[in-house]
Amino acid sequence: MEKINFAIFVSGSGTNCENLIRYFASSERYHCALVVSNKPDALALTKAERLGVPTAITPKPELNDKEVMMPLLQQHGIQFIVLAGFLPLIPNFLIESYPRRIINIHPALLPKFGGKGMWGHHVHEAVKAAGETETGMTVHYVTPVCDSGEMIAQYKVALSPNDTAEDIAEKEHQLEMQYFPKIVEQVLNETFPKS
User: Fold this and answer.
1) Cβ density class 162-176: b for 16+ within 10 Å, e for less
2) Do 12 and 120 form a contact (C-beta atoms < 8 A)?
3) CA-CA distance, 120 to 108, in Å (whole number)?
4) Which residues are catalytic?
5) Distance from C-alpha of 51 to C-alpha of 77, rounded to nearest angstrom
């Protein structure tokens, strides 16, 4: 059976990226065929290379250039894209080329704490400042409007008033490690049903 190739787009340390690569390493159906980062120094690239996954660096001008991105993705046979801590907005041509085939993980319970500038520690600090009693992760389809696509799944965790922004980040991160690969697999199964 021919495997479905997916790409992971990432900007940072790549804990989710590494978790996904390891999770799908033994899959008979799905294969992480490429890791793309907008940052040449992203630790995720080193982790991917150690695990034998090809990588590509696409700074913003390349990311927004159809003549660069489409051949790159076609070269690796990419049929689906997972954003795992990828900061730039995805250009419209990619969204049009991969309809309902690009998903993103967000480190808060959308629609709260989403949108421009809401990534990483900014999100957890906003959750703390708002005095929230819970936080969580959201997985959603990517649309041209940041963090506004249809929600696929949310997982929640309780917060205490004593939790710092770092505590909140750690609690939310545990949810990502536990659930994100399973959600990706579920969406892949729905997107590519067995014939």
Assistant:
1) ebebeebbebbeebb
2) yes
3) 10
4) 106
5) 19
Give the span between the Cα atoms of 41 and 151, in whole angstroms: 31
Per DSSP bridges, beta strands 102-106 and 134-141 are antiparallel
Q: How far is CA 36 from the centre of its chain?
A: 11
Residue 116 has what pLDDT?
Answer: 86
Residue with tokens 């390349």: 62
Angle at alpha carbon of residue 165, lines to 59 and 89, rounded to 5°: 25
pLDDT, tens digit, for every residue of 64-96? 999 999 999 999 999 999 999 999 999 999 999
In order of 115, 124, 125, 180, the CA distances from 134 in angstroms are 19, 11, 13, 18
- Coil, helix or strand at residue 80: strand
- Among 55, 75, 52, 76, which residue's Cα sits nearest to residue 11? 55
Q: Are the CB atoms for 33 and 192 separated by under 8 Å?
A: no
CB proximity list for 50: less than 8 A, separation 6 or greater: none
Contact 126, 89 (CB under 8 A): no
Name residues of the chain where pLDDT drops below 70: none
